[in-house]
Amino acid sequence: METIAEVSIIDDSMIEIHIDKDIDFELEHAIQLNVKIHEIGENRKFYQLTVYGCRTVPSREARTYSISPEGSRFKMAEAIVVKSLSQKMVFNFMINVERPSIRTKLFTCENEAKEWLESLNSSSTAV
Questions:
Q1: pLDDT in tens, 69-106
Q2: DSSP-assigned beta bridge partners for residue 48
Q3: Between 1.10.10, 3.30.750, 3.30.530, 3.40.50, what CATH number should domain 5-122 receive?
């Protein structure tokens, strides 16, 4: 299968995924990403920053898998960054209607998304 995303570990608690622009993001891509996260993360859970390239929107099957307990098994929370109104509409529907199994929030700014994930991490580690 072709490579459709870059996955990198930012620190001990956060992983970053940049999904290519102009692709049809299908179920097999979502599964492929989970396998990659499992491999590089050594079966740990992460706060996940997912940045979608321009005009890339996951299929219904890919979304359903990604927000399911199985598709979210390596996520503590997810910040999704989008670039267009059409992406924003799809992900708002996913978050508000399809209901992810983990805490998920939509952003248009990557820095704000990282800050949100860092705030979740710091509040979970506070004594």
A1: 999 999 999 999 999 999 999 999 999 999 999 999 99
A2: 15, 78
A3: 3.30.750
